[in-house]
Specification:
The protein is mainly β and about 160 residues long. The chain has one helix spanning about 1-20; strands at about 25-35, 40-50, 55-70, 70-85, 90-105, 105-120, 125-140, 145, 150-160. A hairpin with a 4-residue loop joins β2 and β3 (about 55-70).
């Protein structure tokens, strides 16, 4: 584990020297942990496409899928993303709205999802690591509304910039 952390730090340090400017397009792919209130913990994938309008402003399309014991939860959402283009790290915040689909046990429901969150990318150049992306998630389904909304999504993975 120490070797992996050391390698990630080394790559972030030297990829930051390659390019400190803003990219036009970013593609993220990684894994995620999802906690749906009251007690569902799921794991899965998370992917995003961001088109940067300015160096600090972009539009993100985010999709994800989470699974556990026959339960499936998928989202697709879009919204603005604000970022600081620092030489080595790139913190960002976003607000996303879209649709969600929950299914399991032969029953499924479609509804609304809203997410507010942000994260931290490490490294410049073409490749970077998304060290963390944390989102608070609100869900609304026609047959169920989670009023406490203690839903949390955490993601990490690789970012490719063009």
């Amino acid at each position: 584990m120490r070797k992996l952390i050391g390698l990630a730090f080394f790559l972030c340090l030297f990829s930051g020297l390659a390019s400190a400017g803003a990219s036009h397009v970013e593609i993220f792919a990684g894994g995620q942990y999802l906690h749906l209130d009251p007690s569902f913990n799921l794991e899965g994938w998370n992917g995003a496409f961001t088109g940067n309008i300015k160096g600090w402003l972009g539009i993100t399309v985010d999709g994800s899928g989470s699974y556990h014991s026959g339960l499936k939860f998928h989202t697709i959402a879009v919204g603005p993303e604000l970022r600081a283009n620092l030489p080595l790290i790139k913190p960002f915040v976003h607000g996303l709205v879209g649709g969600a689909r929950s299914s399991g046990g032969g029953v499924s429901a479609d509804g609304f999802v809203g997410m507010i969150g942000g994260g931290l990318d490490c490294g410049g150049g073409i490749f970077a690591f998304r060290l963390i992306q944390a989102d608070w998630m609100a869900t609304r389904f026609s047959n169920f509304t989670n009023k406490s909304n203690k839903n949390f999504r955490g993601s990490a993975g690789i970012v490719i910039r063009f």
